Amino acid sequence: MINALAPLLLALALAQPYGQPRPAAPEAAPAPETGLVVAELFTSQACRFCPAANGWLAEAGERPGVLALAYGVDYWDDMYGWPDEYARPEFVARQTAYVEAGEARRVFTPHLVINGGPERMRFSPERAHAVLVDAEPLARIDAAPEDGVITIRLDGPALEASADVWVMHFTPGVQTRLITAGGNAGIEMTHYNTVRAITHAGQWTGGRATLTADAPPADQASAVLVQAGSGGRLIAAARVRASAPDGQD
Question: 236: which strand partners?
Answer without folding.
Answer: 139, 226
